[in-house]
Amino acid sequence: MRTAVVIGTGLIGTSAALALSARGVAVHLRDADEDAARTAASLGAGTVEPPVTPVDLAIIAVPPALVGRVLAAAQAEGLARHYTDVASVKEGPRQDVVALGCDTVHYIGSHPMAGAERNGPLAARADLFEGRTWVLTPTQDTDTETLNAALELVALCGAVPVVMDAAAHDRAVALVSHTPQVIASLVAARLTDAEESAVRLAGPGIRDTTRIAASDPRMWVDILSANAAVVAGILEELAADLGTAVAGLRELAAADEAKRESGAGVVEDVLRRGNAGRARIPGKHGAPPTRYEVVSVLIGDQPGELARLFADAGRAGINIEDVDIEHSTGQQAGFVRLSVAPRAARSLEDALRANGWSLR
């Protein structure tokens, strides 16, 4: 791949353009918002000058509802030899592409499973897709050269390709991405009118649960509108589960001992089903789920402390699998939770204590 056009210079489009430009691809940028395209160009993502000949690949980075129209216009112009889009849903755009009579031989849908709470070119990063899954959804007649062009795009962006059917993709992302977005927003919304004294007690649990609630609402309306029926179905199932949990909690609060025992069983079942589902999430690098031991270390909030902690762990020969920080309220300190292989936990604890660290 020597040349590409990116149509749509938001977070995903600009990040792809930055990654391609960094690897020597000449990238041309287009956006209905010319200021956004110029901003992306100023970041080194490419040029706003139009290509003089058809490029190798056009990457359409617009909301799902616009993919068909933008693809039709680009193909009518003869903009590229191959085309892909990076919308977060695939079946609706695929239907639009067919209905508009687009050339589906030289088109393939795709979706990089990466993002951020912030949107726009200023949020873009050349390494946004490194190590992330990038789904490819060929049409029935997508040719091999177009598939290879998409695979090269994924490789240049440092991602891992996965080929799926468009409808299967949409069902999957409804479960693992779109529904969690709605749930996170609903939970975070409960904080809006909460007492300040309650909000000040917020810790890692509520922060983790509501992190994605900071996302752009307008962007998510576009995404959800393209997959609304599937998400609604999952939310209906979740509502039924919530009803069961509420009934169990009501029984757990009852004065009657038999009801309390019944409620405890219902609530425990909910929590155990959560354990089982959580255990199915792939582990490191997509490997089977792995159980780690957590070593909690008290750390001061000053420059160099994290580096010193990691250096001490490294000198002990311990590989840190994951890291989480719990900040103390009202104190310049917190706990760093280091996830390590179970066989390494005791060695790490001994090494850190020997270097003066306080463990919880």
Task: Summarize the SSE layout with pairings.
Blueprint lengths: L2 E5 L3 H12 L3 E5 L3 H9 L12 E6 L6 H11 L2 E6 L5 H9 L7 E6 L20 E6 L5 H13 L3 E4 L2 H24 L6 H4 L4 H7 L6 H9 L2 H25 L4 H22 L14 E8 L4 H11 L6 E6 L5 E8 L1 H13 L3 E2 L1
Parallel strand pairs: 1-2, 1-3, 3-4, 4-5, 6-7
Antiparallel strand pairs: 5-6, 8-10, 8-11, 9-10
Key words describing this protein structure:
single chain; 360 residues; alpha/beta; 6-phosphogluconate dehydrogenase C-terminal fold; 3 domains; 7-stranded mixed β-sheet; EC 1.3.1.12; Prephen_DH; 6-PGluconate_DH-like_C_sf
Unreliable sequence segments: none
CATH topology name of the largest domain, in short, is: Rossmann fold
Say what oligomer this is: single chain
N to C succession of SSEs: EHEHEHEHEEHEHHHHHHEHEEHE
The helical percent reads 40-55%
Content-based structural category? alpha/beta
Query: What is the spatial order of strands in the main beta sheet?
Result: 2-1-3-4-5-6-7
The CATH class of the largest domain is Alpha Beta
Which radius of gyration do the C-alpha atoms yield? 24 Å
Total domain units: 3
Total helices: the number is 13
Q: Which CATH architecture of the largest domain would you pick?
A: 3-Layer(aba) Sandwich
- Overall morphology: globular
